Backbone:
């Protein structure tokens, strides 16, 4: 009799919670949909990023100390110290880092995001994106482009020269250009990009072209030498990933808007530091639920490289998938289908699978080849238990040890352990009977 | 016995011809595939277009006299006479035209093409596209953009001002820009455009952006005032159809390369003057096989307009479909699917149907949503008899009488009578029984 009453109470409580979760998730979705991210400014990281100090370097992924970091991340940090003048050699930089003389902190704890190693150091110019709905701001570096670049953990003379040019020339040019535009709506560009074959993570060709198209007039209307105008233009035009970091700031704002909704099971961040993969959940505060970072499967490698040479998955860029773009929208970018180890149908299947673990279709981003269905958005972590399906992330492979930078691209699956841990924590926090 | 022998002879001859046709069509296809159209120059129509005289105006479609012309075509011609200073009023222009004081001739007879009314007058600056394989050249005007424009048969102060600016400023700027680029490969841009949601007739958004991206550096590197640079840039950036006329010149070169192949049943031109729809066939010389121009079906109209107000189908732009793009490639541009009176599946169906009347899939233009199959190219006029399927053309609707210009867009079907006439002529020329 007592047991029966207890079971009834339990069942009532569970039912009550299910309703509360539903309501909370509806709120989270509404918040994602109402965010209006606008690229409004460019400034120096030290000036604008919260809790940035001359001695702080930010990195991708959940928190991690020097000892735990993978080789590409360590390289990027050493490169950043040299760039900042905090060390005058690779060796000196390594010593400072090993001796904990530098404060290391995750981008996500500073309203920031960065692709791959994601390193942001105090003097770097950063993109400033504001959400006019909730008034929050997010930051990222400018994308450096391919080849020997710090975001891939590569550095050398060429990389440092480029970083210095970004700091001394490009940043201030873009600050004036963005001011002249009055702000650039990021959803507007991405909505068109999705119509033009971008999935908005590994493919940003159309979005970058649309961005370029929008800034030429402001660029020409400010008082700059033709040489500088040309340099700035060529830098953007020469990098089809230029818009990636901008997309990341917008996705960060949308997911942060959905974060901290009591009772919500909506996934609000996925991020990797190259050692661990971490997720955050709206109703579970600022905890990270981590597991070892996975290796990419079905990756395509640059000539001369192959499986076994890549570091585990790395970067904050999976905030894009958390927002329902990238891997979730791969059916919009059949040119990326080869990463799916198949053709167009395989890409469509992935997007459809993501539809099984998400709560809504985003009407802002419509996939042409799926009869203009919206992108599957808002992962409900409970759906993993029901379906066994994990988020699919379009990613790049960076060499695990040689400093060669990017050696491939492919698809990563979020590790299931993160979801199990988050679900356990949810049960505990909301006193669910397991 | 005599009858039997005759039948055998007949059968042998038919078989022999079928083989000759097959061979001829293979040649035609090879010629289409080997054309390399490059935008190489801009010049004044009078300077470069064969048989252009100060008193000649070219128009879209097969040959037609003033009396037979539709209202939008007549308007465009009157506008052109005023632009040329050949008449000082609309009325005076009409008088000259009625009195046959102006030589009217089809673009196609002068290595030229023009969309909609397609009017080219002697002072207009024209795009010069050269095929490096066969050394031929094709010409078209610059696309004027939407609204009150001569290509839609609208003219007035604004239109004439724009035409004068194109002649006095834009033409010479672009001449220098194109020279600086060393020539722009048109297939290269269209191949990317097809990957980015363009079908390369009614949708040229991506192709225009790619063209823009390619000309900014040359534009900035020549000695021009910033104001002129800005005007030129804005003119292109403000018109997502800018690349249309360029695509038409390339398609014209490809189809002309396949023209005049003895025994070939490959369609080498489809064109409309707003009164008649005409086709040309490779093995049938320069004859046009004509039928009344069709009205568009499943068209979408601008607010305030509807069916019954449009003129019949008009323009040389269907050279794009003859080349296997536009309506034939509509599965690549699901954003155009609404013109198909349906969704994505309907667009895929149209492209698949076009596959049933064409001879090959063009490896240069691969449709992402069809697992990167090439665009269906090279209509064999015999296939119409076997399948009953007619070429599908993505087109625009222009007002039949008010001078309002474009009032809608939709799909036109080539009239079957043209194909019947061409097949009869083929039979006659090659002494086929039947």
Residues:
């Amino acid at each position: 009799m007592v047991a029966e009453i207890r079971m009834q109470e339990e069942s009532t409580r569970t039912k009550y919670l299910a309703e509360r979760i539903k309501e909370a998730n509806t709120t989270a979705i509404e918040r994602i949909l109402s965010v209006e991210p606008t690229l409004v400014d460019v400034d120096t990281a030290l000036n604008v990023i919260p809790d940035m100090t001359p001695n702080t370097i930010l990195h991708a992924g959940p928190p991690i100390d020097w000892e735990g970091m993978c080789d590409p991340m360590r390289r990027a940090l050493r490169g950043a110290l040299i760039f900042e003048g905090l060390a005058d050699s690779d060796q000196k930089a390594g010593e400072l880092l090993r001796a904990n003389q530098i404060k290391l902190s995750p981008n996500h704890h500073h309203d920031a995001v960065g692709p791959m190693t994601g390193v942001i150091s105090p003097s770097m110019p950063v993109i400033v994106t504001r959400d006019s709905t909730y008034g929050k701001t997010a930051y990222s570096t400018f994308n450096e482009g391919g080849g020997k670049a710090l975001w891939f953990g590569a550095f050398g003379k060429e990389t440092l020269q480029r970083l210095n040019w970004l700091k001394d020339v490009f940043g201030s040019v873009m600050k004036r250009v963005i001011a002249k535009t009055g702000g650039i709506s990021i959803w507007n560009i991405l909505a068109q990009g999705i119509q033009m074959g971008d999935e908005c993570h590994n493919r940003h060709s159309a979005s970058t072209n649309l961005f370029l198209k929008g800034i030429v007039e402001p660029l020409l209307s400010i008082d700059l030498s033709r040489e500088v105008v040309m340099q700035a233009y060529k830098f953007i035009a020469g990098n089809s990933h230029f818009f990636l970091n901008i997309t990341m700031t917008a996705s960060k704002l949308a997911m942060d808007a959905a974060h901290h909704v009591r009772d919500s099971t909506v996934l609000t961040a996925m991020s990797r530091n190259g050692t661990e993969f971490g997720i955050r959940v709206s109703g579970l505060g600022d905890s990270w639920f981590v597991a070892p970072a996975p290796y990419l499967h079905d990756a395509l490698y640059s000539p001369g490289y192959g499986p076994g040479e890549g570091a585990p998955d790395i970067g904050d860029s999976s905030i894009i998938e958390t927002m329902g773009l990238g891997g979730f929208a791969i059916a919009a970018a059949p040119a990326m289908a080869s990463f799916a180890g198949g053709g167009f149908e395989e890409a469509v299947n992935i997007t459809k699978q993501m539809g099984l673990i998400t709560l809504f279709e985003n009407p802002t981003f419509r996939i042409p080849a799926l009869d203009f269905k919206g992108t599957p958005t808002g992962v409900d972590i409970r759906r993993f238990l029901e379906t066994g399906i994990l988020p699919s992330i379009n990613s790049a492979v960076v060499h695990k040890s040689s400093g060669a930078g990017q050696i491939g691209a492919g698809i990563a699956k979020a590790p299931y352990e993160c979801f199990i841990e988050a679900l356990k924590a949810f049960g505990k926090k909301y006193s669910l009977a397991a």
Remarks:
- The two ends of chain B are 21 Å apart (CA to CA).
- The first strand of chain B starts at residue 37 and ends at 44.
- Chain B touches chain A through 31 residues (CB under 8 Å).
- DSSP finds 13 helices and 15 strands in chain B.
